[in-house]
Amino acid sequence: MDFELPEDLVLIRDAVKDYSESVLGPLAARHDRESELAPEVFAGLAELGLWGITIPEEYGGSGLPNLALCVALEELNRVCASTGVTVSVHNSLLGSPIMKYGSEQQMSTWLPRLASGECIGAYCLTEAGAGSDAAAVTTTARRDGDDWILNGTKIFVTNGGFAGLYVVYARTDPEAPKAKGISAFLVPRDTPGLSIGAHEKKTGIRGSSTTEILLEDARVSADLLLGPENGGFKIALETLDGGRIGIASQALGIGRACLEAAIRYAKEREQFGRPIGHFQAVGWKLADMSTRLDAARLLVYRAASLRDAGKPCTMQAAQAKLAASTTANFCADECLQIHGGAGYTDDFPVERFFRDARITEIYEGATDIQRLVIARNLLA
Ligand code: CAA
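That is the input. Now the predicted structure with acetoacetyl-coenzyme A docked in place:
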């Protein structure tokens, strides 16, 4: 068993770290304050090849494994979690299901545009009445000749405000049991009847776009059905296995930012005549943060490696997300505590890390949903 990253992933990690520190570093607070990403970030991420990192080379991507995406996401999120989630959702919730379930025509039409960043992807599953109970979706798709007509409202759509392509999960068989009558559709932004609703004002990851997507008699041709008719719920959940590994990587990045900030402050800040890091109470916090982060990273890499090997990883992805997201929040809390009153102001980025970390325990399956998935697998 080798715990070292392969050479090509070390190069990617270092390139993304360099970009994140030099370009995203000065922008991260602005993204948070102005609730949007700076336009140059989209081009910068394209130059780095991050929009198509896992898309095969024949479709214009880099053809790298999910493990590479994890490594890149940790580095992006260490500096700017708003940028990090934008890249994670694009790759793992839209690129991934098209690669896995798309027809040749769907792949050749959409993957090159996704890989270049010309078209950003979004995933529309959640509705007002279908959050943790994702199979409760009420958005409908009705067949009309060679088309499908979609009606409903999706909420909490990451990248919703600027995506060029949405994967929408809609009920195609109202008579079937909940999870059995749902299909997945690729819905381009310019589809008549698709519009962008409210933009959410969030506690953290404020620079990322989170919107409602309204579908009012939105008409898409039958060749935009993704995967089998009524087979959409399994696509949604199998896609989320990958998405959860992405959010776990985000959590690692935020947690690492907290650990590094805490170490810096513990060395600089003096009380009672010495740097506070010399007090055992502070040193132990650093030790626990570091240990939990390293343990979570091993779970994330294991889940990504299983996914890359085409093996089942539902439980391992849930374990990775559970461990990494709770660790990120633990680290954010301890980091803020070490900073004391200063950490509670915006003089330090710690308060942003604290707000950004919180969402990792909520989206792409809340912490208790990860526990439910793990427990069901253990008891199956
Ligand atoms: N891969 C493939 N198939 C799967 C699967 C997986 N990971 N998990 C379950 N399935 C299959 C099951 O085998 C079952 O099929 P059969 O009936 O043929 O056996 C079918 O899907 C239904 O499964 P369940 O009976 O387990 O379904 P359920 O209704 O009990 O729900 C759940 C299970 C785990 C609670 C699921 O609803 C869930 O994950 N909920 C959380 C939703 C979520 O994560 N939402 C995030 C949305 S995206 C977002 O956050 C915003 C963003 O843009 C970042």
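The CA atoms of residues 333 and 354 lie 7 Å apart.
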